[in-house]
Design brief:
The complex is a heterodimer of chains A (318) and B (302). With 318 residues, chain A is mainly alpha-helical. Helices cover 71% and strands 0% of the residues of chain A. Chain A has 14 helices and no strands. Chain B is globular. Classes of the chains: A mainly alpha (318), B mainly alpha (302).
């Protein structure tokens, strides 16, 4: 063991060289087993690779199998998918998810960016405390978040109607009508997810070198121009990551719906996740629900690609 | 500093650094006041649902029915807490604790060596890049996408509604994230010290145990807390895999407590308070690291 280590010491001699930089590759497999070190390293990685296979690749491959077969296990080709395109409940759920994304993503980014700028500014003392308060919703379970807001929206117990009645307005029974339920759920999602945007954008702001502001001030740039021309380009990668994650989080939510509306009134607040859950678990049509899973995966993939391409890459090419 | 002095006299828009200097001299700076007020409002917005749930759990029935709702309970009662304990919430807490703790520990046991190998060992670059890249992608995949196949697999094997199934699933669901975050942490630690130990004839394992682990221990601990919180909150997988009180974790128990019509809100508030409590403790003990830990997971991929 000791002999071998002196032969192949740890890579990355310089502080700056990437940890896993290899010698020039000469075929992956021969290299894999040419060093003892390799074999040990691969063995150390393999357990996590197996978990990846179990929870990600197996399910995705199996999903395709499910889509192509019926609940009885017969091969039915694309029938599940074509049925899905005619399923108005599914259309409703898909539209609801997208609508929610359209409302929640910009709001979360705005709130997150605003808070990140405030906490990052020199006026906010004790940043660590502000941060730990502001990111609490991230660590609250979906179902608990939904439950808390269900109480908040409650016509008599809840706090939300208090300002309304103080203004002399009728209390709104938020979760009973389709449009108010949509607004109410969006608010829950903004409460729950905007801390994620805040956290990522705050981390992004911390990467902006301070001296560029001094240089800009010397050049006579206004605060607004400095923000627009320097801060934003710098936090752009984080901004794109935040956009993707907020979108993904808001479309996959299920606990908040389970706790507040249970998809009601009628099917007005079914989103994709709730649809998948309802189809697979309550109506026992897992094969059919898998088709909806595929749509969800595609949506995630498309969103990810768009954002990475147009928000992230653009800065690199500059 | 000479430069900033110049800018102070030549521009009407002061740069932040100057304002700080000025703010330290003056007591009441309107900008600072505005920032602090907005931050207090944000904190209020963040915390008020939790406060509301906590006080709803100790309100008397008369207070609960009072219109408009009272911001402070006039006649605090523990009835709801007695009821929730009678409904055996402690068993759910126990289930959640066992599942979350074991899954966290096993996950770290799997993930730490992988992160070590990915950052410290000579491996084919492509292999590492592919594995790590895939693990980064996993963060985007919705858990419900794997829920159905895993559920069907679980029913075939007859392991639905077992605690160990939940432990296995929570372990594997989080491993990719853990490797991802740990890799960032490991890369932050310079390798010179370890190399020196190896040169002195220490074994690799000895170098890890005596030098690397103590260095990364704070991060490791925080990642463990983070994973614990993920497991503690996990809902979707539990929805499919929990059928009875034997395995029922806290999130599912809370869902079961949510009344659709009756006036049983004190009880569900108490349950919610129990679920949120460890999270609040974690938020305030971890503070700064949490930011690093959480952001690393997504940011270190670039």
């Amino acid at each position: 063991m000791t002999v071998q280590q002196t032969v192949s010491p740890l890579p990355g001699q310089g502080a700056n060289s990437p940890a896993s930089q290899p010698p020039p590759p000469q075929g992956m497999w021969s290299e894999l087993f040419s060093f003892r070190d390799n074999r040990l390293g691969v063995m150390l990685i393999i357990p996590s690779l197996l978990t990846l296979i179990l929870v990600q690749f197996y399910p995705i491959v199996y999903n395709f199998w499910l889509i192509l077969t019926s609940e009885k296990g017969e091969w039915i080709g694309l029938a599940n998918l074509s049925r899905l395109t005619r399923d108005t409940i599914f259309h409703g759920a898909l539209i609801f998810s997208l609508k929610m994304g359209i409302v929640v993503v910009p709001m979360c980014l705005l709130v997150g960016l605003g808070l990140a700028l405030l906490v990052h500014s020199d006026y906010a003392g004790r940043k660590a405390i502000w941060i730990s308060i502001l990111i609490i919703p991230l660590m609250v379970s979906e179902i608990v978040a939904g439950m808390m807001w269900k109480i908040m929206y409650h016509p008599t117990l809840g706090l939300v109607n208090v300002p309304l009645s103080a203004l002399g307005l009728e209390p709104i029974i938020w979760l009973v009508k389709a449009d108010t339920a949509f607004i109410a759920l969006c608010v829950v999602e903004i409460w729950r997810i905007s801390p994620l945007a805040f956290l990522l954008l705050y981390a992004g702001l911390n990467q902006v070198p301070r001296d560029i502001y001094e240089a800009a001030a010397v050049d006579g740039a206004t605060r607004w121009r400095a923000f627009w021309d320097m801060t934003l380009p710098y936090i752009r990668p984080m901004f794109s990551i935040a956009t993707i994650l907020v979108f993904v989080w808001s479309t996959r939510t299920i606990g908040t719906i389970a706790a507040t509306t249970q998809g009601g009134p009628g099917r007005a607040t079914w989103n994709l996740s709730w649809y998948i859950y309802g189809m697979s678990f309550q109506r026992l049509k897992p094969h059919y629900a898998s088709a909806a899973v595929l749509v969800m995966l595609l949506m995630t993939y498309i969103a990810g690609t768009i954002f990475v391409r147009y928000l992230w890459v653009e800065r690199r090419s500059r | 500093m000479a430069q900033t002095d110049v800018s102070e006299t030549t521009t009407n828009e002061p740069v932040p650094q100057d304002v700080v200097m000025a703010a330290q001299g003056r007591r009441l700076n309107p900008r600072k006041l505005l920032v602090v007020i907005v931050l207090y409002l944000a904190a209020f917005w963040t915390l008020v649902p939790m406060y509301w749930v906590a006080i709803s759990s100790i309100k008397s029935l008369r207070d609960l029915a009072h219109i408009p709702p009272r911001f402070f309970p006039t006649d605090p009662r523990l009835d709801a807490w007695v009821t929730i304990f009678e409904r055996r919430i402690l068993e759910n807490v126990y289930n959640s604790l066992v599942v979350s703790t074991l899954a966290t520990i096993i996950c770290l046991i799997i993930a730490v060596p992988a992160a070590y190998a990915a950052t410290r060992m000579r491996l084919p670059f492509k292999f590492v890049a592919i594995v790590v890249g895939l693990m980064g992608l996993v963060a985007l995949l919705p858990p419900i996408a794997s829920a159905i196949p895993l559920f069907l697999l679980g029913s075939d094997l007859g392991i639905i509604d077992e605690k160990y199934t939940l432990i296995i699933l929570y372990t594997v669901l989080n491993t990719a994230f853990a490797v991802w975050v740990l890799r960032g942490t490991f890369m932050d630690v310079p390798m010179d010290v370890e190399e020196a130990a190896l040169m002195d004839g220490d074994t690799r394992f000895g170098a890890v145990r005596r030098i690397l682990l103590p260095l990364i221990f704070p991060s490791l601990f925080s990642i463990a807390i983070l994973l614990f919180i993920f497991n503690w909150n996990e809902y979707i997988i539990a929805l499919y895999f929990v059928n009875s009180m034997k395995t029922m974790t806290l999130p599912i128990a809370i869902q079961a407590q949510i009344p659709q019509h009756e006036l049983d809100w004190g009880v569900v508030s108490a349950a919610g308070t129990i679920a949120v409590f460890p999270v609040l403790v974690a938020a305030f003990t971890l503070q700064r690291f949490l930011v690093r830990g959480l952001t690393f997971g997504v940011a270190s991929g670039q």
